[in-house]
Amino acid sequence: MKLVLTEEQQFLKDTAQNFAKDKTPVTHFREMRDSENSQCWDESIWKEMVELGWSGILVPEKFGGSEFGMAGISVIMQELGKTLTPSPILSTSVLGVSAINMLGSDEQKENYLPKILAGELTTALAIDEGNHHDPFAIEATAVLDGDEWVLNGKKVFVVDGASADTVLLVARTSGKSGESNGISVFAANNDSPGLNITKIATADSRNYANIEMSDLKLDQNALLGEQDLAGETLEKILDLGRIAISAEMLGNTEEAFEVTVNYLKERKQFGVQIGSFQALQHRAAKMFCEIELTKSAVIAAMHAADENSNELERLASLAKFQAGETLHLVSNEAIQMHGGIGVTDEYDIGFYLKRARVAEQIFGTSEFHQARYADISGF
Amino acid sequence: MEHLEQFRQEVRDWLEVNCPPSMRTPLVPEEEVWGGRNAEYVNPESKLWLERMGEKGWTAPNLPKEYGGGGLDRDQTKVLHQELFRIKARPALNSFGIWMLAPCIIEFGSEEQKREHLPKIIKGEIRWCQGYSEPGSGSDLASLSTKAEDMGDHYLVNGQKVWTSYADKADWIFALVRTGPKEPKHNGISFLLIDMATEGVSTKPITLISGKSPFCETFFDNVKAPKENLVGVENSGWTIAKKLLQHERNFISNFGLAGGGTGSGADVVNIAKKYLGETNGQIANQAHRENITLHKMKEHAFGLTLQRSGDEGAKASAASSMFKYYGTEHNKDRYELMIAAMGNKGLGWTNEGFSDDEQAITKAWLRTKANSIEGGTSEVQLNVISRRVLDLPN
Fold first, then answer.
1. Cβ of B289 and A288 within 8 Å?
2. Cβ B305–A272 below 8 Å, yes or no?
């Protein structure tokens, strides 16, 4: 495994970089935040992304996708992360496509994948139930009643859940909370009776929802994959999501850092550029090192996913941990080094801090992944 | 690809025949090979291994064949390293000559210097040491004052160097000397090669906090160095000095990660399990386990960064400062975690109450404190990153 991009991946990255610069600079995010748009992303921008093929990066070729893989979609997310571009790419193009492709039957793939590819359908993966990511702590239940599944329980902090056309609900069909066995995944239309979706307002002004299932009735073909046996595959799907959001967080970090270093060169106090102060230089240099480590962890993880490496779990946790730690550091230092204007709403740098903390929570914090890494490594 | 696999097979076949059995066992410190006129070989097979590898040029695989190197390209060098690693072969030769000096002679040296020095370096016949720091010139290296006066056919060298690694065992020294006392400090420095057997050269070991003496003071008292031993142009030695420092940093950051100078390579997780105990196969103490996990994750990400840098074929300059800074700080951290995990067993000084391994770790812990000082302090590396990579103002 070489830790570099192929020409194809570099091309995707360049395309995404230009897209973000031209179509979705940070002012685009600011407009979204200040608008009445409750889904928090722009329909026409998503359509353009779909036209570029970004909804189908992980879709198999036989359904019209490009199979550019996790490396392909990760470099796109990295570039979109630089300008905080809101879109359903993580929830739909990564998680939705992977869940349907890895768990679903041929018929389900036929049903969903072409629609996702065409930008006609967005999805959300509803998994967490508590204050912290804990993928097997599933208490929501699904019980077969005649020829219908009946689901009860709640889901929280569902990424893009407030607008998704189809919600992928993780529920327990046997066993008890904490067990990987007994977990099943169901696809439900957002307007299904008994499915109550409530948008929540988070600091990063993006799209999340809490979901309640009260005797939600779904027909039998709503079950994705085999009953009770989705746990292991779900971990893999989550790892792909973790890698993708790590790439986005790397993009957040790179941009926040660049803006900050530029500010150190512009801002003058005591008659000199503040970037000439060693107290700031050394902190900036340390951030540079951490960013280099993050780039390596992310690129190793995305290639591991595409090569089906048995190191995938460890590398996904390493990537999410390192991306989280670095973004945490850089987002804090960015504010401090900007001084007073850093804490004003008028200036963009605060957006990166708010996005950082929310992204750190998604699919497991650094603490979660540190513990997971230790367990996998046998420490 | 095909020719690489063919090369791999050739390497395998050659190693099978030529790597002596005891050279495939874990290295013990007394048997480390540094070569030189006065080398002593506790194990005769280490001498044999050096001779065979030196003959092949594989002690310096990527240096040109015409000067005794292996003449291998980047991919072939990688294959050679992989195959050596696969059979757990010991390094045939440790050498400041190969790690630091040879690349600079290749770049800046005259044809005569290349023919004279490179083959002896590669075969391990001559052992080199580095004369850079002085008592008054540490981080501010360019302020050095050891002077070399032009006496027509030779330079007359007077002054003192400090932190000269293994000067008492070395045959030759590459030294920075002041040839232009009136020039601005960076513009009056030359890069001079001096035979340690010359009259007027003397050394005195420095005892470190670890109790060991890997470093010396080196004195030059009216030492005559022939003019042909000047590398490059007079008064432009600073350029060579900086380039050599990059090679040194790369070496220290790799070396640092590997074992802090002891070659013990003790794994912090195994140490922790041994001295803190295990619960269900895990390090028994949670606080130690968390600290160690953080450390291992950083190590993993740093290792991937070294790999990425190689894969990208990145330019040395900026990366070398990052690797030097990160690698040495990380290595210090590793030994702090190790002695912490060992508790009172991590603090032994002699074999009264402590095993050889335990003492070695304590001594290595103390040795690592110099990692972030030698070859440019961590603070100097952070300065380099700030100025050269981030382009922050002076």
1. no
2. no
